[in-house]
Write a structure and sequence with these properties.
There is one protein chain. The protein is built from 11 helices and 23 strands. By secondary structure, it is α+β, with helices and mostly antiparallel strands. A hairpin with a 2-residue loop joins strand 1 and strand 2. Helix 2 runs antiparallel to helix 5.
Length: 420
């Protein structure tokens, strides 16, 4: 992709209403454009990141047998009246009427609709278990939208729903989802701490939040230091709670083994049994022809929020530092002298060689050297190949690692071989 043809309206200015790093950097790098309070257009740079995140999420969900669907963004109120949540949900729900005065709502979540789909088509225990998921837009009318995409009103979310024949099967599904989330966040290049959350009447550890560690996080996390070396199985039971649940008098961890950190919630999984299947009369028949109400669970990842969380966890004073798996491009080529024939020839040669196997942004714009270098750091692509007229006379270019800041001189052949 040529930067001169890429829609990324970068800016030097710090937006007056942006208070945290992710909001500032997403606006300055041209990732988002605000339409209304808490509502944003997602521009090409952000879309590239979002698509990489969703691809990884889908791969890990498909791997455990979950099946992708698209529920509707507009739901009939009747489903929520059945479950008892329509009046209880509060003003965060956007309620609307159609031209026939029918009551509808803009989806804030999809437990009711998932249950409705299940009860229409699954009639026997032989059709279970069922795991459905989607990655779709949601709307919650936050009273005080703030912090950019971290607490917006419209957001992209992965939400999944499971239906099992009994508690033991539901527990197995829960553990399967838990492990898939651990793998997902690891593949995204993140340290995401699974924090024990309220588990309801069932007891045990059947509810976990996943928190990305970041200094600007809203949650304070108290965790056993062994959490960071624990196996995937041990993660489920290793002590980690947010400040709401932390009681120093009841803490099972010695103070010397306790780590206190800040986190941003990006995922939540929980088991809720028959909370929706019973009131919505979603049942199957067992081998004896008896009614069985499925045991259900719900599993969410805030996809658009995750982008903000990644930036909060990975940036410096110059801009974003993308983890390689989710970076909008793998490499950016910076031609610092677009009127120098040898620089242009070298940049094009490297671009043509690498574009077949890597995602490359070639900055061919006729702007100052300072602006070009500043934009590269702001956007945060993992590797910068810098072509200047002095070094190119000796057949050399510079390779900069955005994360470490390390700059290495290389020949043209070496830098091409480095990424082939």
């Amino acid at each position: 992709m040529l930067f001169s043809q890429f829609f990324a309206p970068t800016s030097k200015d710090i937006p007056a209403d942006a208070k945290i790093a992710s909001h500032i950097l997403m606006l300055r790098s041209g990732m988002i454009s605000q339409t209304a309070s808490g509502i944003y257009c997602w521009l090409p740079l952000a879309v590239r990141v979002m698509e990489k995140i969703t691809k990884i999420i889908c791969e890990e969900q498909d791997r455990i047998g979950a099946q992708k669907v698209y529920f509707t963004t507009i739901q009939p109120a009747d489903l929520w009246i059945e479950s008892g949540r329509y009046d209880a949900y509060g003003k965060e729900m956007l309620r609307i009427k159609d031209r026939k005065e029918g009551d509808f709502l803009y989806s804030p979540t999809n437990e009711e609709q998932a249950t409705d789909v299940f009860r229409k088509y699954v009639k026997s225990y032989r059709g279970m278990p069922v795991m459905l998921y989607q990655i779709h837009w949601k709307f919650r009318d936050e009273i005080r939208p703030r912090f950019g995409v971290m607490r917006g009103r419209e957001f992209l979310m992965k939400d999944g729903y499971s239906f099992d024949i009994n508690f033991d099967a539901a527990k197995e599904t829960y553990q399967k989802i838990f492990r898939s989330y651990v793998r997902t966040f690891r593949r995204l290049g993140l340290t995401a701490v699974p924090v024990q959350a309220d588990s309801g009447a069932i007891g045990g550890n059947m509810s976990h939040e996943f928190q990305v560690l970041a200094e600007t996080g809203e949650s304070t996390i108290y965790s056993d230091k062994r959490l960071f070396t624990a196996s995937d199985e041990e993660l489920m039971t290793t002590f980690a709670v947010t400040d709401e649940k932390y009681n120093p008098k009841e803490c099972p961890i010695a103070e010397s083994d306790l780590i206190v950190s800040k986190g941003i919630e990006v995922g939540h999984i929980f088991y809720f049994g028959q909370k929706y299947s019973k009131p919505m009369n979603a049942f199957v028949l067992n081998e004896n022809g008896e009614k069985i109400y499925p045991e259900m669970g719900s599993y969410g990842i805030g996809v658009s929020r995750l982008i903000g969380a990644i930036i909060e966890a990975s940036h410096d004073e110059h801009g974003i530092i993308w983890p390689e798996p989710v970076a909008p491009f793998d490499i950016t080529i910076l031609n610092l002298h677009t009127k120098n024939e040898k620089c242009v020839e070298t940049a094009r040669r490297i671009y043509d060689a690498l574009s077949s196997s890597k995602e490359v942004l070639y900055d061919d714009r006729s702007i100052t050297v300072g602006e070009k270098l500043a934009d590269a750091d702001l956007i945060g692509i993992p590797y910068q190949i810098i072509i200047g007229q002095k070094k190119i006379e000796n057949g050399l270019v510079e390779l900069k690692n955005r994360k470490t800041g390390e700059i290495t001189e290389m020949s043209i052949e070496q830098v091409i071989a480095r990424f082939m």
